[in-house]
Specification:
The structure is a homodimer. Chain A is of the alpha+beta class. Chain A has four domains: 69 residues, Winged helix-like DNA-binding domain superfamily/Winged helix DNA-binding domain (Arc Repressor Mutant, subunit A), CATH 1.10.10.10; 51 residues, no CATH class; 88 residues, SH3 type barrels (Roll), CATH 2.30.30; 83 residues, Alpha-Beta Plaits (2-Layer Sandwich), CATH 3.30.70. Chain A has eleven helices and 14 strands. In chain A, the strands form three sheets. In chain A, strands 9-8-7-6-10 form a five-stranded antiparallel sheet, covered by helices on one side. Chain A has a four-stranded antiparallel sheet with strand order 12-13-11-14. A three-stranded antiparallel sheet of chain A has the order 1-3-2. The longest helix of chain A is centred in the C-terminal third of the chain and has 18 residues. Chain A starts with a helix and ends with a helix. In chain A, 33% of the residues are buried. The mean pLDDT of chain A is 79. At the A-B interface, helix 1, helix 3, strand 4, helix 4 and helix 6 of A face helix 1, helix 3, strand 4, helix 4 and helix 6 of B. Strand 7 of chain A pairs parallel with strand 5 of chain B, so a sheet runs across the interface. Chain A binds a DNA duplex through helix 1 and helix 3.
DNA sequence: AAGCCATGCGACAATTAACGTCGCATAAAA
DNA sequence: TTTTATGCGACGTTAATTGTCGCATGGCTT
C-alpha cells in the first residue's frame, strides 16, 4: 500500500492550509475523495492524527469539529534540504530582503529561511554557533524605514488580486483627516522606492493607492473588471506617479569620473558596450567612461549621488541639466 | 506501521543530497540505522524505489551500485504550500532579489519560488495566466549589472566557510595580468554595493578578496584559523575598504527639501524622531526636516542624489562638505 | 581470465498495521 | 430535551510491508 497510502498522505498535507486558515476533517475527506483517494473519513482522521505527531500540524477544536492547519511558527517542510553552501546563501538573501520588503511579506518566506537556519545551526562546527557573524550586508539602505503594513489588509488585497475580485477599501489619503471608501477592481502591485502600491480601477481611469494607507479591505463577491488593453507595464511607463522608467530612447552617456568610482564600474558595468579610458583632459587620476543607458530619474539620482566625483560630458541636454543643478546648488550654499 | 514507516521514509528523504552530490544505498542505510531505524537494506531499496516514483528522485547507476540524489530541475517539496497571497508576495520578492544577488545565489532559492509560481499558475483564473503582469518592481537598480560569478567557486568557498576549512585560491587581482595563489582561512562573507567579498586571514592580518575575482578554489583538509577576538562586524566597521558604516556618533541632521521629496520622507522615515515642518526661510513649497541619523558614506550619497533638491543646514561640518561639493561641481560646468 | 565480493532485485512467507465497520460518547443545534 | 454531526475506541478482515533467501550481474583482485 506504499503506493496509495503515501500518496494520499502527501495529498492530505497539501490540502491543509496555513495558520490563519483552517479546514475541517470532513472537508479534507471530501477533497481527497474528489482527487480519487476513496477512503473512509475514519482513515483521514487517523492520518491527520499521525501526521500531526510528525509535522507542525494542529487542530482547532470548536465543539466536536476539528479544523486543521499548519502551525504558524512551524518550520514546515522544505525538501531537498538546502546543502550547506545554499543555506548560507539563503541567509544572505534574507539579510538583503529585510530592508526591502515589509516584514509581513518577509514572514511569508520564513519557512524557507528557517530551513536554512536549521541546517546551519544543526551542524556541530564550533565556529558556526555564531553563524550570523559570518555574514554581513552593508549596502542595504538604512536611511529610510518602510512604513508599517497591516498584514490582514495585505492578505485580503493579494487574495483579491489573485482571484480577480472586487474590493471595498478604506483609504487614508495623505492630506485628509478621514479615510475615504473605495469600491474598486485591483489590477496589480507596484513596488516603488520601497513602497507598495495597488493599482486599481473604479468608475473612471486606473489609479494607484499606497498599500500602507489602506486601513481596511473587504473582499466583494463580484468579479474584477479591467479596461481592455490595460497592462500594468504600460500603466507604470505612462503614469506620472512612477517617473522612474526610461523616457525616450537610450542615450549615449559620456562622463568623467574619479578613479575610485570608476573601479567599481569596471566590475559592475553600466552597459555591455561600456568603455573606460584614461581621461585626456588633464584631470589627474580621472577616467572617461562611455556607455549606452536609458535616461530616467534613476540615472539622474545615480549621477547626482557622486556629487563632484562625476562630470557629465554628453549628451548635451543631460550636461545642461547638470549645469543647472550645479548652479542651483551653488545658490543654496553661496547666496549671491 | 504509520509510525515507523512514514518517519523512516521522511528521514530517508532528508538524507538524500541534491543533484551535484549523490549517496549510495548502503550509505543511506547506514545513516538510517544510526538514526535508530533498524531495518534491512532491502527495505531501504524498496523505499527508494517507491519514493522515486512520487518525488523527483533519481539514481545514478555506476555498475551495480546505485547512488541517489534529488533531480536538479525537480520542484522539490515545499510545505505548507504558500497560499495565494503568499505566492504573489514570493514572486515579488524574487523580482526584488534578482538585481541584488548573483544569479548563482538566486538559483539556490529556486525551489521556493518555483513552488510559488506553480501555485499561481495552477489556478485557473483567466487573468492569472499573465501573472507577471500583476507585479512590477521599479526601484531596482538597473544601472549596474553585477559581475558573473563561478558557481563552483561559490559552492567551494561557502562550504569552506561553513565547515571552517582552509582554502587554496586562485585570485585575479584587478591590476595584474596573472592570478595569484593564496592559502587562507575564510572568515566571512560581506555583501557590499552588489559585490560579494570573502574576508580571509592568511599569514598576517585579515583582508578581503572579491568573490568574482576568485578563479578557482580548492578545499584543503585543514582546519581554518581565526584570530582571537576577530568578529566580522568589527572588521567591517574598522576596515577602510568598507567605509559604508557609520563613523562617529549619530548626528542631528537639519535639511531643507523640496516638497515632493519630503512627501516621501513622511512615509519612509529617516528616524523615529524625524520632524517635517514648513520652511520659514521663504522658499516656496520647501520643507524643513530634522532627524537623528548616522553619518556615513551612504548618507552623503543620499543627500547628493537629490541634487539641488536638498540643502543641508546642520551640522555645520556636513554643510561645509556640501559647500565644497557645490564649489567643485561648479568648476566642472562653469570653469572660471 | 577466473573467482570473489558487493549490490540489486524477484519471490515468498510471516508479521503487522492499515482499513472499514460498528457503536458509543459528546457537543452544538433545534 | 431531542436531534444531528463528529470524534474516537474496538474489532475483524484485508492487504501490504518486512525479512530472508537466492539468483543475477558488474567490478575488482589475484
Amino acid at each position: 500500500m506504499t503506493n496509495d497510502s503515501l500518496l494520499r498522505q502527501w495529498a492530505l498535507l497539501e490540502l491543509i492550509p496555513r495558520a490563519p486558515n483552517q479546514r475541517h476533517t470532513s472537508d479534507l475527506h471530501q477533497a481527497l475523495v474528489n482527487r480519487g483517494y476513496e477512503v473512509t473519513i475514519r482513515t483521514v482522521q487517523r492520518d491527520l492524527l499521525n501526521l500531526s505527531r510528525i509535522f507542525c500540524l494542529a487542530s482547532n477544536e470548536t465543539g466536536r469539529r476539528q479544523a486543521w492547519f499548519w502551525m504558524k511558527g512551524g518550520s514546515g517542510i522544505h525538501l531537498p534540504l538546502p546543502d550547506e553552501p545554499a543555506a548560507l546563501a539563503l541567509l544572505l538573501a534574507e539579510e538583503h530582503l529585510k530592508p526591502l520588503l515589509p516584514p509581513e511579506t518577509l514572514d511569508l518566506m520564513k519557512p524557507t529561511f528557517a530551513a536554512a537556519q536549521r541546517i546551519v545551526e544543526s551542524t556541530p562546527h564550533e565556529g558556526m554557533a555564531k553563524w550570523p557573524e559570518r555574514i554581513q550586508v552593508i549596502d542595504r539602505n538604512p536611511l529610510q524605514k518602510p512604513p508599517a503594513l497591516d498584514s490582514r489588509v495585505q492578505h485580503t488585497v493579494y487574495t483579491a488580486l489573485f482571484q480577480n475580485q472586487k474590493l471595498k477599501l478604506n483609504y487614508q489619503p495623505r492630506y485628509k483627516k478621514k479615510p475615504s471608501e473605495y469600491t474598486i477592481s485591483p489590477l496589480g502591485i507596484v513596488s516603488h522606492r520601497g513602497l507598495l502600491y495597488l493599482v486599481v480601477v473604479g468608475d473612471y481611469d486606473p489609479f494607484q493607492l499606497a498599500l500602507h494607507r489602506i486601513t481596511a479591505a473587504e473582499l466583494l463577491d463580484e468579479k474584477g473588471e479591467s479596461p481592455t488593453d490595460f497592462t500594468l507595464g504600460g500603466y507604470v511607463n505612462d503614469d506620472q506617479a512612477f517617473t522612474n522608467r526610461r523616457f525616450g530612447e537610450p542615450i549615449k552617456l559620456v562622463i568623467r569620473m574619479q578613479e575610485y568610482a570608476a573601479k567599481h564600474l569596471a566590475e559592475c558595468q553600466l552597459s555591455t558596450d561600456q568603455t573606460i579610458e584614461p581621461d585626456t583632459s588633464g584631470k589627474e587620476g580621472w577616467k572617461r567612461i562611455t556607455a549606452t543607458v536609458n535616461e530616467n530619474e534613476e540615472l539622474h539620482w545615480w549621477l547626482n549621488s557622486y556629487g563632484a566625483g562625476v562630470e557629465v560630458i554628453e549628451p548635451s541636454a543631460l550636461r545642461k541639466a547638470m549645469c543647472e543643478t550645479a548652479a542651483a546648488l551653488r545658490k543654496h550654499y553661496e547666496p549671491s
